[in-house]
Amino acid sequence: MSKSVKLAVAAAVGLAFVGQAMAKDLTVISFGGANKDAQTKAFYGPFKKASGINVVGGEYNGEMAKVKAMVDTKSVSWDVLEVESPELARGCDEGLFEKLDYTKIGNKADFVPGAAQQCGVGIFVWSTALAYNADKLKTAPTSWKDFWDVKKFPGKRGLRKGAKYTLEIALMADGVAPKDVYKVLATPAGVDRAFKKLDQLKPNIQWWEAGAQPPQYLASGDVVMSSAYNGRIATAQKDGKNLKVVWNGGMYDFDSWAIPKGSPNKDAAYKFIAFASKPENQKVYSQNIAYGPSNKLAVPMIDKKVMAELPTAPQNMKDAVKVDVNFWADYGESLEQRFNAWASK
Amino acid sequence: MMASSAPMPDHQLTTQDGVPLKTKLARAERMNKMKSLALVLPLALFLLLTFIVPIGSLLFRSVDNPEVVASLPHTIKAISSWDGKSLPPEPVYRAFAADLVKAHEDQTLGDLGKRLNMEVAGYRSLLGKTARALPFDPAPASYKDALVKLDERWGDPAYWQAIRRNSTNHTPFYLLAALDHRIDEVGEVAKATPDQAIYLDVFARTFWMSAIVTVICLLLAYPLAYLLANLPTRKSNLLMIMVLLPFWTSVLVRVAAWIVLLQSGGLINSALMALGITDHPLQLVFNRTGVYIAMVHILMPFMILPIYSVMKGISPTYLRAAVSLGSHPFGAFWKVYFPQTVAGVGAGGLLVFILSIGYYITPALLGSPNDQMVSYFVAFYTNTTINWGMATALGGLLLAATLVLYMVYSWLVGASRLRLG
Amino acid sequence: MSESSSEVLVRFRNVQKSYDGENLIVKDLNLDIRKGEFLTLLGPSGSGKTTSLMMLAGFETPTSGVIELAGRSINNVPPHKRNIGMVFQNYALFPHMTVAENLAFPLTVRGMTKTDIQDRVKRALAMVQLDKLAGRYPGQMSGGQQQRVALARALVFEPQLVLMDEPLGALDKQLREHMQMEIKHLHQRLGVTVVYVTHDQGEALTMSNRVAVFHQGEIQQIDAPATLYEHPRNTFVANFIGENNRLAGRLVSRDGERCVVQLERGEQVRALAVNVGEPGSPVSLSVRPERISLNGYSEHCDNRFSGRVQEFIYLGDHVRVRLEVCGKSDFYVKQPIAELDHKLSVGDVVPLGWQVEHVRALDPIEQAA
């Protein structure tokens, strides 16, 4: 065969392949960044090898408005969606997500408690914890109490611009035990207490909104400490930044897979979720980003050293808080409103 | 010529084929009207479909209140006879239990819970818990007792008042909330509690910040526009390209660039420290200073262009004439030149002000929480909490405020003197 | 009339002006402007006339030389302190002020009292017959009315000197002629000194006491209109003002004020020696078309030739006849209708001639015009 004929055949095969793949493309939407890179390595690529279904990875910022618009207008173009727990619960109530058939996914009992929900399956466990730049601080902070100590640790602090996590952190800094945080916060006095505590720190707070901001702020020296998603900090550590995480008082939660109601690719979506829930694939994911696996069977497969940096390591879980999704579903609206009112004064 | 025909009734002019001239003319004009109408029609339709209808339907959402009416039809009927003070009578409880079972089946519980949770925090989980326990089997003698036993909150009139308040298809709830007011338990309009009140401040801040941005823009743009209008063409063209250059970069990129420049380790702070002007970095970003700097930078061309276009039309001989008449050059500028640029200043000011009050990205990225303007909360309710009623109420009020402002302006200055570009 | 007054109001002394440091726009201006006179600076565009006016107004500074006003140098006096009224080409009325406010402007900046201002504005408006339009804005008035307001505004603060920079350029012909007379009469009535810039020679001749003809940054001639027309001192002035037949030749001999010039084809012409060199040098002869006699009228002329009629141009009050004379095909003769021989037709050869007083030997034409 001459070179040009070879080329033509290769092109034709390629085209046919693309055509086939296009018909079966699965659109998976995640939060992007290092998390998406790890998902690509652990899930998207291997899934394509195993099933022949091409995964098109998209990104969003967790705006449910888009999902609602798609479902309402019956023009769903996203097949699998990474969602956080509150959105999962709310979206499930509001009929935005399919109710899952676990026979197509795997054994419910293999999952970490709380990971297998009606409309979603946990992908990983992540944590919001205290992070600091070890190059800039001589003494290491050990708790949220130190976070409030501007005399001992002068400089700005990063906190997420929102009531969630911030109010829990304020109560823990005020001496509330991690297990009692939501009990206190459910009372008006507890809310007042949290805002009073925040008042003390307000002039020193620099607010962040996107998960990528805290490591940037820490690295540039704009803040000396910050609440941060542990995975983002781990990524920055890999890039050579001397950032450290204080697990004490961390808040953990799941990110879950959900299928928007009316997805035209439901079968492939189930296949993908089942694939991503397998322990061997979850192991690969956790080795690429510092989030804990949602499948219990994956835990023993992971390297000890890597495990130490995961939220699910026993020593890291000891003084951590499980984010109470139901609490936030009930009180989120009024607390966020009050937070906005407070923050903008 | 017309000898054989019947005599004409009056002196009517006719065309060659005998049709009266007036009729013919009217017909021809009607054709022309139809033609011009047909030419405008596509644009009119386009505007209607892409602009007026969407805005109208969005604004309607600020008073739309379908959740309770759709999910609890029987409850609403039964609750209308309730006095609203003590607990509602047994039929209300019974109807409510039936409605809830139906809503649970239809998966409309989410919307209902979301709506009622806005009125009383915790309503969502209460509904979920109650719906899971229903239907009672066997049917209890008193639904009232059964429900109160299930959760004592059903014995609190506040939860029933919330349903009663929302038994119509329209509600002032969102609009009142956007003005820091609410309807209290007895159905009267009352001020929101201080720890929930925010939007009046936000509106005031939005207008105040926009006014500051407008004034700074004006102070910086006026001399520059004067320079542009009076330089030789080649130099002014070069300068004009520099003025317009930022237009070709996305707002996001420019805002990001400002963060890099202004942050504590950024170029400006390093320069200031290297020059010994300050010994510690100034806080130039994530506060109002940063927002002002970036907004002025982004909006500057909108001020420069209208002023420039007006100035370009003012002959330099006016100033010479005033000076020749004995006026000091400064006085001549103030009394003769400036009044002629008022139309451009007004147009630029209005343009910048109206653009400013809609600003979102710049304050969101460069400001602290107390530098956020109304648009930030519109986005917050649209994207984060999916409370579109609240989002459209805020947006609608902003739109109304803008229109009022424009009317005041055109009443003061006269719209005819407004020249945009 | 103030022509006789010899008191000098403005004096230009060796004034030069250059914008680029290479070319002089005004070469070496020496000019005395007498008190009360109407002096017109006439010249083609780029001749330096407007620059000279602007230097006097203070909007341009002389590169060298001195300008004196009433005996004092005003080189360092800023324009707003010179107390010189000025009327601009496009009126420059302030569009945001009414007519009355426009007129009050120079009085207000001089700090006059309100009643004084009202009084003066009223008088100024009466002067230009615009009493009824005091409340109008300039945009609501015709060109002629605006022109009058501009005039009134330049005069209302009673300056000793008024400058006008082509003020009638934007008006149509009829209105322009009307305004010329109005300005002239205003000048006569008020006795104010006027320096007027124009490129329209008719305007200059109509209005002025004296006209300074500018060319290439220099004054070619400054004289009363009649002198300028009848006795141009060089070819440029002869050409620029009025119509002119030019004949190129060479000086044969000179005898005091008279001379003999030989044309290219050998004919000899006796002429006034106004601006000539040595015998043998080239000269340009200048004859006004209305000074040429045809047919029998030419019998007593000092210079007689014959010409072939080429064309008749009918202009109502007179007819211009184009002839070929001495090999020159654009030789014009102006014939009053009453004197025109109706038997004359194209192709005819007719005798023509002119008196020696009416042909002037001037410097040669620099380039074929």
Structure, explained:
The complex is a heterotrimer of chains A (345), B (421) and C (369). In chain A, helix 2 (33-51) runs antiparallel to helix 12. With 345 residues, chain A is α/β, with parallel strands linked by helices. Chain A is globular and about 60 Å long. Chain A has helices at 3-24, 33-51, 64-72, 85-93, 144-148, 166-173, 181-185, 188-201, 213-220, 230-238, 266-277, 279-288, 304-307, 314-317, 325-343; strands spanning 26-30, 55-59, 80-84, 120-133, 157-160, 205-208, 225-229, 243-258, 292-293, 321-322. Residues 12-23 of chain A have low confidence and may be disordered. In chain A, helix 2 links the parallel strand 1 and strand 2 (55-59). Chain A contains 15 helices and 10 strands. In chain A, strands 1, 2, 3, 4, 5, 6, 7, 8, 9 and 10 form a 10-stranded mixed β-sheet that branches. Chain B contains 19 helices and 2 strands. Chain B is flat. In chain B, helix 10 (199-230) packs antiparallel against helix 11 (233-244), helix 16 (329-357) packs antiparallel against helix 19 (388-414) and helix 18 packs antiparallel against helix 19. Chain B has helices at residues 21-60, 66-71, 73-79, 90-106, 109-119, 123-133, 143-150, 157-165, 173-178, 199-230, 233-244, 251-262, 267-274, 288-312, 317-324, 329-357, 361-366, 374-384, 388-414; strands at residues 181-183, 189-191. Residues 1-7 of chain B have low confidence and may be disordered. Chain C is an alpha+beta fold and 369 residues long. Chain C folds into 2 domains: 2-235, P-loop containing nucleotide triphosphate hydrolases (Rossmann fold); 243-362, RNA polymerase II/Efflux pump adaptor protein, barrel-sandwich hybrid domain (OB fold (Dihydrolipoamide Acetyltransferase, E2P), Beta Barrel). Chain C contains 8 helices and 20 strands. Chain C has helices at residues 49-57, 99-108, 114-127, 143-155, 173-190, 201-207, 225-230, 235-240, and strands at 8-18, 24-34, 38-42, 64-69, 72-73, 84-87, 161-165, 193-198, 210-215, 218-223, 245-255, 258-263, 268-273, 282-287, 293-294, 303-314, 318-325, 328-336, 349-354, 359-362. In chain C, helix 2 (99-108) crosses helix 3 (114-127) and helix 2 packs parallel to helix 4 (143-155). The longest helix of chain C has 18 residues, at 173-190. Chain C is globular.
